[in-house]
Each structure stands twice: as C-alpha cells, then as structure tokens.
Amino acid sequence: MYKRIRQCIGKNKYPDSDEAKREMHRLKTTGAIGDLNVYLCEYCGYYHIGGLQKRYKSVPELVVDGTVYVKKSMQRTHDDAYAYKALLERKGHQVIIKPPNTRRKQWHVYVRKIQI
C-alpha cells in the first residue's frame, strides 16, 4: 500500500465515488467553488474532490475497442504501476497500463471513463 499519505493532509476523504459526487454537487450549488471533479487518490485509496490538473486543458484519453479510458496516473516503476492497478481494480475500476515510451520512463495508468 502507498505510504505517501502526506499528499492527503487537509483533504476530505470519501469511501466511495457516489458520496464524493454528492458532496461535489453540494459545493457546486453554493457557487463559491469553480470546476471540480472526483478522483481516486493513488496514495490513500479514498476519493477526494479537486480541480483538473493545471497542465492539462482536459484529461488525456485512450480508446481501446471502442471503450474510452482516461489517464489516471503515471508511475515510475513497473511494480508501482501494477500495485496501483490492483488498488483500482479492488475499487471496481477497469484499468489499462501502457508501458513507458522512449522519451519518458513512466508507466501510464488509464481507467475506464464513467459517464456522470
């Protein structure tokens, strides 16, 4: 399991995506907060509410046999990528891992896109 829980300090933890989505909807209706999304934390295994990563205008997608997957994470090692895949699969997600290309030595983890 992941030890870097310090990444989650100060963030609310939700045990499932439905509960996090309800809270996100409540926050959006107040009008005080901008664009939000629900994501599964790779460090603690709980769901958090946050904004899209600033480096992307949108989340990168991968289409395999007509199914859309969104990039969830990049891991530095094969073992980290497959440990994270196992965590996501225990949470009920369908996961694909792409090995590193020659330029970047990171493993890309994609999860099946769920329509909200």
Question: What is the chain-wise order of helices and strands?
Answer: HEEEEHEE
Number of domains: 2
Task: Count every helix, treating DSSP H or I runs of 4 or more residues as helices.
Answer: 2
Q: Span from first to last CA?
A: 28 Å
The assigned structural class equals: alpha+beta
Mean pLDDT: 78
Strand ordering within the main sheet? 3-4-6-5
Shape, please? globular
Task: Kindly state the number of beta strands.
Answer: 6
Short synopsis of the structure:
This protein has 116 residues and is an alpha+beta fold.
Which tags fit this structure?
116 residues, alpha+beta, 2 domains, four-stranded antiparallel β-sheet, 6 strands, 27% strand
Question: Any overview of this molecule?
Answer:
- Helix content is about 25%, strand content about 25%.
- With about 120 residues, the chain is α+β, with helices and mostly antiparallel strands.
- It has two domains: about 5-50, no CATH class; about 60-110, no CATH class.
- It has a four-stranded antiparallel β-sheet, with helices on one face.
- The longest helix is centred in the first third of the chain and has 14 residues, at about 15-30.
Fold blueprint:
Blueprint: H1 17-30, E1 37-40, E2 47-50, E3 61-64, E4 67-75, H2 78-90, E5 95-98, E6 107-112
Antiparallel strand pairs: 1-2, 3-4, 4-6, 5-6
